[in-house]
Amino acid sequence: AQPVLAVVGRPNVGKSTLVNRILGRREAVVQDVPGVTRDRVAYDAFWAGRRFTLVDTGGWEPDATGLQASVATQAEMAMQTADAVLLVVDATVGATATDEAVARVLRRSKKPVLLAANKVDDDRLLADTASLWSLGLGEPYPVSALHGRSSGDLLDAIMAAL
Ligand code: GDP
Ligand code: MG
């Protein structure tokens, strides 16, 4: 089976936009992957001549346990089912308490975890991304899912991890 990358993070950080950017098309083929529900959509992706499965964990909404707990639960699930996990944070907001809670869960992962600092639409935001090292997940990759900025560097890092 091809390797699986799960994309996790708070609502509205741009996970689905980044997934579409990686897929390079708006309409994507939904894969028949066991365990994938309405909230976790798997797509067939390609980069650098390799196939992988991209799981968009969109649809996370705060449940009765609150946003922090529900996102942390999704991160646990991603760690169990994926070969690598991509945490997306909003660089214009910085690391929130929820981001820190998810990072804490992901730091326990034995699988590779990558960190995307999204919404870096222009260079003035680059300096802010350095603060995201504090999440303890290594280098934050600045990207703009909306404009396609630097997503190639992130993808190269993802393929090296998968
Ligand atoms: P998700 O809930 O994490 O899947 O986030 P979405 O992909 O649905 O995006 C949430 C909002 O952020 C949308 O209005 C997007 O257009 C916007 N967005 C996503 N990526 C970027 C980006 O790189 N720059 C900016 N400025 N907005 C973005
Ligand atoms: Mg989404």
Descriptive report:
This protein has 162 residues and is of the alpha/beta class. The chain has a single domain (4-161), classed as P-loop containing nucleotide triphosphate hydrolases (Rossmann fold, 3-Layer(aba) Sandwich). It is built from five helices and six strands, in the order βαββαβαβαβα. The chain has a six-stranded mixed sheet with strand order 2-3-1-4-5-6, with helices on both faces. The two termini are 12 Å apart. The mean pLDDT is 85. Guanosine-5'-diphosphate (GDP) binds at residues 9, 11-17, 58, 118-119, 121, 144-146.
In short:
This protein has 162 residues and is α/β, with parallel strands linked by helices. The chain has a single domain, classed as Rossmann fold, CATH 3.40.50.300.
Chain-wise SSE layout:
Elements: E1 4-8, H1 15-23, E2 41-47, E3 50-56, H2 67-81, E4 84-90, H3 97-107, E5 113-118, H4 126-129, E6 140-142, H5 151-161
Parallel strand pairs: 1-3, 1-4, 4-5, 5-6
Antiparallel strand pairs: 2-3
Helix pairs in contact: 2-3
The structure holds guanosine-5'-diphosphate and magnesium ion (MG).
Side by side, the strands of the main sheet go 2-3-1-4-5-6
Number of strands: 6
- The stretches of 5 or more residues where confidence is low (pLDDT under 50) are none
Bound molecules: guanosine-5'-diphosphate, magnesium ion
- Sheet/helix structural class: alpha/beta
Report the end-to-end length measured between terminal Cα atoms: 12 Å
- Radius of gyration, taken over Cα atoms and rounded to an integer in Å: 14 Å
Shape, please? globular
Number of helices: 5
Order of helices and strands: EHEEHEHEHEH
The proportion of residues forming helix, as a percent range, comes to 25-40%
Keywords: GTP-binding, Nucleotide-binding, Repeat, Ribosome biogenesis
Subunit structure: Associates with the 50S ribosomal subunit.
Organism: Amycolatopsis albidoflavus
Binding site for GTP 1: 9-16, 56-60, 118-121
